[in-house]
Write a structure and sequence with these properties.
The structure is a homotetramer. The first copy, chain A, is α/β, with parallel strands linked by helices. The first copy, chain A, has three domains: 1-87 and 178-187, Periplasmic binding protein-like II (D-Maltodextrin-Binding Protein, domain 2), CATH 3.40.190; 91-167, Periplasmic binding protein-like II (D-Maltodextrin-Binding Protein, domain 2, 3-Layer(aba) Sandwich); 188-307, Alpha-Beta Plaits, CATH 3.30.70.260. In chain A, 30% of the residues lie in helices and 30% in strands. In chain A, strands 1, 2, 3, 4, 5 and 11 form a six-stranded mixed beta sheet that branches. In chain A, strand 7, helix 4 and strand 8 (128-131) form a beta-alpha-beta unit. The longest helix of chain A has 15 residues, at 292-306. Chain A is elongated and about 85 Å long. Chain A binds chain B through residues 58-64, 66-67, 85, 114, 129, 131-133, 173, 175, 177, 179, 209-210, 212-213, 216-217, 220, 225-233, 235-239, 241, 280, 287, and chain B through 58-64, 66-67, 85, 114, 129, 131-133, 173, 175, 177, 179, 209-210, 212-213, 216-217, 220, 225-233, 235-239, 241, 280, 287.
């Protein structure tokens, strides 16, 4: 008898995170467990109450989700095993029987509100924003009797919470996407696919002007392309940052492996967050002659020299 | 008859932003105008209803305020004229007569909630978070009858809204600070003080691996130190970023001027956000021989060669 | 009445340098003055006994002519105004009536001997080398009665000194060329042609590991391509070098001008050797957006920001 | 019965190279074999007629000995095993009974002549230079009856060839030194001493602007200091160079090993010339955390991540 995969996700039901969780392999047979925060999601993985956790890491419009970036930097024992892209589409919804002209205040997550701002300004002469923890939390609260006239949420939330859609796809950017990561306990990364990403957190040596430049040269010297770099405060004082970095390639790529070891020597603190398949399925390439075969022939040459 | 300076700030009264606004020169005689959002603050400056706007740009714990970073990148016509540091101290407060043991739900801004999380876990067996747009908005809402048992806000908010402090300084990091910027319409920067900062937004050329490295070399080649670099999505698709950068020095420093011109040639889009005095009053220095006198003697030499 | 140009060259008559001197504009009406050394050539220019001097700077096989590189670094007041390429073709020649089988010792310049080594090994069972100061000096000496059986020199020397060619074009590399420079007193460089070269001598700061890297970044940050870099000892002790560098472009190119000023700040000693047309007539381009129009628009932008 | 070491050196007896050969370990029991050229010296090692060869590589005043640099780049099968410094001191000498006032022409190597130029100008009203292949060859020739009035050579040559010293130590730079290398057949380098040097020849990829910068970054990314870089023409056409490089450290230093492998991937042609003790006995250090223990801990970390 097989045991179902248990996936913790940022709840309640109806969030975009739940949609992302549904994209995991075998998700159809999995048990989805809603949790209240990114930290709770990671805790669930660490204490064994979930096998995997799905949390948002970056929105194409709003940028990095700093709660996730910081939790990754501060939670030993977790690792990224996959990433998933979910298109972000917002609907305005209310209790059955409501009319658009009745809407005066809108409960939703600030990002959803910001994305819908232009539509609201054009279509609702006066409206005010009441912030919610997530779009699904807003829909659930309205269904439970919250004193607001409408919510902005994902289409799925309407059916889930018995609401009626007043206007569809009101977000400004129709191509908006959120990227989610699949987190598990630290372990051996999945096999290299050729379309991989490796994530790390790197602190800069505190007293070095040009430290960021020097850190980037650790990647450049091995031909490694970066697909993302996000600065986050270390938190002790202004002016000290760590960087959350996504690099193209897998830890089984020697270019990545050597860059990681270079960072380990350079940085006072470097955290490996995982090597995992890219959601966009593009090939991960290294510049110059930095394929594994190039590393092997260089190593053979070195061995022959050392005698 | 002198006219009072009109300063827009993220309201309502009692926010940390109001405290920052109080630090501007001549703030004691100024008219403080609360506004609802960063965008509203910038609009007030642009439409002339305010002379200056004060908005948060970075918290030492939570990092960059992306609404501000993005508004600066997307709002032509505004410029930074100053920065101000405000220590961030949170108190738990409720309606007069309340007791700590009565508190079940807490209305506050998510950052304040995150900062107070450890204290709450220890002192309030069960509690839930209701998000508010700002700590002062939470206090104001409670005073106006919101159905929550307590709020977390700055000390000043208690007196302002007739609330009673149940616990003082409950934030985890006692050194936490928020940095605020003073915004005005684009114009001639203030005079160089020797302790200056210059802010820019720089997009990377889209198709260049190593673009960030190359961009940083524009600063390094002139000995310019960076005090902050923040990546933000350009928003059209994943993988394209612009960088909000604070560099040490003033646009009247030739090192800064030449670096700015270098960025103008390198980048498809660079925005000058201003040169203004540093809040920490430290001297701004350039590495190597990159003082104005070094630029002058190099220019004299060049002129003599050109004949 | 016009006065003929006086051109000092490394003599005697019949040297490749004389051939190069013949390539100067108006050389047909010029007075050619043979001198004994590179230093004498420069002295002739400095003391006014010649208007121009022509000396070899680099051979495509043998590399830089260090006497010239060092004289340029150590002789204030001179500047390069042009460069000329001369194909290097060696003939074996002897007194009229000689036969190849008679040749036992060969008088010639070491470079000519090295270039002809393979031919000599194949065609002259036994032969020895007697070094001469130049190929033409060898021919002249043989004509004057030197006790050697043959010389290796340029074809022209045979007629000039009444010798007979025993074997033609015996050099190993048929494409070999020598590059010569035209030197005059320091002054305004000639006009920009679009196919220009700028030469400098740069010392590195003594105590800086990575100084060469940093120096090269002064060029890279302005998109300037180097066509040649030659290291020469400063001479005070091992491990201290100066670099003779040829960069693509003209001092009237802002990319070059800014790079020069950057070097002036970076280096304890930088010498401008001139901007002059390239002998290969290829276009000189700068990488990135580093044409003069790019510098102008960057400067206009800066001026508008400074208010 | 032990067999004496056979050491080929640039002859004849009395050269500075012979003095360098005398500095090799066990040189007192060695058989010294004079040869006529750098190529002959390398051939002697390759065909087994000598165990070691000693040739000059660099003079502190005159710079690199290009014949040696080029022979190292073009002679497969040889390797450097040591380096030796010899102070260069020149004496003016003539046949017994000669007087200084009799000297009209001086036979010597061009480098010795250049170094003695100032003294000659001051002390010999008129003199001319006759070039010789080496200072010892000049002394030997004079002893054998060459028609010149004096030679410039090392002190030792006077006694060796029965000449009389007319003036001692006439070189301009009293600190001048020549560095010699000890060459053997390619094999396992000697053990690491902590004061080591590693020599390589590196060609740049032909079509890459900024190739030199990129090559240097292979050293910089591993904290490796260079003590010497010399550019030499590849010889096929102008503008293509290879670089003879001396780096601090030994091939058993992981920093050096990784840099070598990086060069092997980057460069179309890289030649390892050897790792050997430094003649100056200074410690060889790598910048940053690039000692072998740093490489080991980085490797352990990587292995733990790979699972």
């Amino acid at each position: 008898m097989s045991v179902a995969l248990r996936i913790a996700y940022l709840g309640p039901a109806g969030t975009f995170t739940e949609m992302a969780a549904g994209l995991l392999p075998h998700a159809d047979k999995a048990q989805l467990i809603p949790v209240a925060s990114v930290t709770d999601a990671m805790d669930a993985v660490l204490d064994g109450s979930a096998d995997r956790a799905v949390v948002p890491i970056e929105n194409s419009i709003e940028g990095g989700v700093s709660a996730t970036s910081d939790a990754l930097a501060n939670t030993p024992g977790v690792q990224i095993y996959g990433e998933y892209l979910v298109p972000v589409r917002f609907d305005l919804m209310a209790k059955p029987g409501s009319k658009l002209t009745d809407v005066s205040d809108v409960l939703t997550h600030p990002v959803a509100f910001a994305q819908s701002r232009k539509w609201l300004q054009k279509n609702l002469a006066t409206h005010s924003h009441v912030p919610a923890a997530s779009t699904a939390a807003a829909a659930k609260a309205l269904a439970a009797g919250a004193q607001v006239s409408a919510v902005i949420a994902a289409t799925a939330a309407a059916e889930l919470y018995g609401l009626e859609i007043l206007a569809s796809d009101i977000g400004e950017n129709k191509e908006a996407q959120t990227r989610f990561i699949e987190i598990g306990r630290s372990g051996k990364p999945g096999a290299k696919t050729g379309s991989d990403k490796t994530s790390v957190v790197v602190e800069l040596p505190g007293d070095k002007p040009g430290g960021l430049l020097e850190m980037l040269e650790q990647f450049a010297a091995r031909g490694v392309n970066l697909s993302r770099i996000e600065s986050r405060p270390i938190g002790d004082r202004f002016g000290r940052y760590r960087f959350n970095i996504d690099a193209q390639g897998h830890i089984e790529d020697e270019a990545i492996a050597e860059a990681l070891m270079g960072l380990h020597r350079f940085s006072p603190k470097v955290i490996f967050l995982g090597s995992y398949p890219r959601a966009d399925h593009n090939e991960s390439v290294h510049l110059g002659n930095n394929e594994n075969s190039d590393y092997e022939s260089a190593k053979s040459w070195l061995d022959s020299l050392r005698g």
